[in-house]
Amino acid sequence: MQEPEEKKIALELLETEQAYVNRLHLLDQVFYTELMKEAKTGKTVPEEVVKMIFSNISSIYQFHAEFFLPELQKRMGDWHHNPRIGDVIQKLAPFLKMYGEYVKNFDKAVELITAWSEKSPPFQELIADIQRRKVCANLTLQHHMLEPVQRIPRYELLLKDYVRKLPPQSPDRGDAEKALEMIFMVAKHSNAAIAEMERLQNLWVVYQRLGLEDDIVDPSNELIKEGPIQKISTRNNSTSEKYLFLFNNMLLYCVPKVIQVGAEFQVHLRMDVGGMKVRELKDAEFPHTFLVSGKQRTLELQAR
């Protein structure tokens, strides 16, 4: 008898899970454990760095090795009597949120491996030594570390395929569809974590360029646009180079610093967006000009 299509996909899920647990074992029990042991001797790299590289890989490994894989094995062993996996995946889905931390940390982890490999030859040598072992299959640590990042999208693909192949009246349809929805939400959660981290990093760079002024540094601000602008002086009919940062709640009117030590700009004026008005001017001598008026004052500016 031909195996039903949905069973083939469920078996593929089990096989890839087994291989994935082996990969996690390599990351947690081999790389992380051995690098940590060396770090404790104080000869290679600080313990904190090893912890930062591997983030929460131990929790991810334990979850898959001790819970998800055994549940899946048990279910596939009993497929003849109970042909379903939707409920098992529903139990798994909420725990996948812990991937957010790992995924968010991934780029930083790769940077740390590169930086410390240059700084500490014994660290580099230990990694190279582990990579030469048969279990590594000629792949680098960074390559193995990418696997958890790709795992949730893989679940999503397999489950989509599984739902598509299920007969309409299958007892697993409801559960499998709900499980797919849950996995989809987790993937979104993980992407949102990355986007938020990038936003904060970019924001921090902007704050550094502004000299980290106390009343401006706020993690909830959003930078909307920035760029050079000409300030028009009506007194002597001239323009001077200025720079604007527009946030969701304020407009910063800045002067580029000539000597760029530390900050790149000096904040001359901060205008609240609340109550601010912008009006275009028709000026033959100065095209592309507009007035920005706020509670604090009014500026006449010219765009490129």
From TrEMBL:
One GO CC term, this protein: cytoplasm
InterPro entries named among the record's database cross-references: DBL_dom_sf, DH_dom, FYVE_RhoGEF_PH, PH-like_dom_sf, PH_domain, SOS1_NGEF_PH
Keywords: Cytoplasm, Cytoskeleton, Metal-binding, Phosphoprotein, Repeat, Zinc, Zinc-finger
GO molecular function: guanyl-nucleotide exchange factor activity; zinc ion binding
UniProt keyword annotation of Zinc-finger present: yes
Chief subcellular location: cytoplasm
Top-level taxonomic group: Eukaryota
Compartments it resides in: Cytoplasm, Cytoskeleton
Pfam families in alphabetical order: RhoGEF (PF00621), SOS1_NGEF_PH (PF22697)
SMART domains: RhoGEF
Gene Ontology biological process: cytoskeleton organization; filopodium assembly
Residue stretches making up the PH domain: 222-304
PROSITE patterns per the UniProt record, alphabetical: DH_2, PH_DOMAIN
Protein's name according to its UniProt entry: FGD2 protein
Organism: Molothrus ater
Recorded name of the encoding gene: Fgd2_0
